[in-house]
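User: quick one, fold this
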Amino acid sequence: MNKFICLFLIIVVNCKAQIKNGNDYQNMRDVINENIKNTIYSEVLKENNIQAKFYITNLSSDAKETIKSDSLKNEPLLNDGVYAFYIKDIRYSFIHIYVKSTGKIKIFESVNCPPNNPKIKQAITYIKGNFVNKESLFEGVSNYSKYVQYYKIDPQSKFNCQTR
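Assistant:
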């Protein structure tokens, strides 16, 4: 019985550690770092002792404005809404969806990889359950690729979903 309780506590602590409700910037940074950890880009960052800069596009706003992660460092929290966050200048630009609603945070990782990833449909279903009358929000999330800013390396190349 004691082993069961210990296992339960370890699972609860680990799950809570994955998403820190108090710091949106760190939540996003943790996901970015996890998704690039097996890439050459990550090795270059480590060698030069720098952190990846990423971008955040507000899919909740009509303007769909994009900010750099550095500008979020000084602001502890984002408003409730839906955000896409990603690194735009490397070929491993996985797009992640960050949903914040009444203090609850849910992250859908790498929705663009592979193409037709079911995670984007899961994100939309989740958003419909947590936001009311937001048809423009559903449209923005469904068509996130229109609003995110990322560089193309080669117009003929396909998105590479493999890290190495």
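User: anything notable?
Assistant: Helices lie at 2-18, 24-36, 40-47, 69-72, 118-130, 135-142.
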